[in-house]
Design brief:
The protein is α+β, with helices and mostly antiparallel strands. Helices cover 45% and strands 18% of the residues. It has six helices and six strands; from the N terminus they run αββαβααβααββ. A hairpin with an 8-residue loop joins β1 and β2. The protein starts with a helix and ends with a strand.
Length: 233
């Protein structure tokens, strides 16, 4: 009888403890879900700005993570999609792990595809503008100064030093991680009116391309830096 009394007395307390633990877990899960919803709304906005990859959140250890936002490398409703060559046409467009020379060749392919779609002539890469583009990239990285006048130099200083004397133009781009891929960089230029106008000037016949990996640049890390210079023959 004593054991039975003890069994009867302990059983409801154990149930109470289990019930309390259940309520605590339920509250944690609900709060976690509310946080996830709020975070999803915030990250969706940020994702459109940064075009980052998928964002995952784990509410509790051991539980499956939630995908809060399906990231994209390109803006929503991108009006310039038709000007971006496919992977079959310009291989490696979304890769940042290729040798730099291959990435530069991919960019040349992408630029010429876009210009052809715009009914313009293709551009011929020249060693002179390739050299001056690389010189500009080196200045930007060395002085941590993402501008056309990096290190306080004139914008066309490297081109003139390389022996180029004609009309000249330049587009710059930098992107962290996957945002530094050639196709993504070109899309950034296409979606910027000033850069697009420069890219689609009919008088250009030659160009130079430089691509450089920079650990930290202008507050960003693991950056791919692009310099694209234009000229007339």
């Amino acid at each position: 009888m004593g054991i039975e009394d003890g069994d009867w007395d302990n059983e409801p307390r154990e149930q109470d403890r289990r019930s309390n633990r259940g309520w605590v877990l339920a509250v944690v899960v609900v709060l976690g879900l509310l946080f996830a919803i709020l975070a999803a709304e915030r990250l969706q906005y940020l994702g459109k700005q940064s075009r980052a990859g998928d964002v995952k959140l784990s509410i509790l250890p051991g539980l499956p993570s939630l995908t809060l936002h399906k990231g994209s490398l390109y803006p929503a409703n991108d009006p310039w999609t038709d000007y971006l060559a496919s992977e079959a046409t310009c291989p490696g467009g979304e890769r940042t792990d290729q040798p730099l020379g291959e990435q530069a060749n991919t960019m040349v392919c992408l630029i010429n595809y876009a210009r052809q779609r715009y009914q313009l002539s293709t551009l011929i890469p020249t060693s002179m503008l390739n050299t001056s583009s690389l010189g500009k990239a080196d200045k930007i990285a060395r002085c941590n100064d993402f501008t056309h006048t990096a290190c306080g130099a004139e914008a066309d200083e490297d081109a003139r030093a390389a022996g180029y004397s004609g009309d000249w133009g330049e587009n710059l781009y930098m992107g962290e991680g996957r945002l530094g891929a050639p196709r993504v960089a070109l899309d950034g230029w296409l979606n910027s009116p000033e850069h697009r106008e420069n890219l689609f000037r009919a008088e250009w016949t030659i160009e130079g391309i430089a691509v450089m990996k920079v650990d930290r640049l202008d507050g960003y890390s693991q950056v791919t830096l692009w310099v694209n210079q234009f000229g007339t023959s």
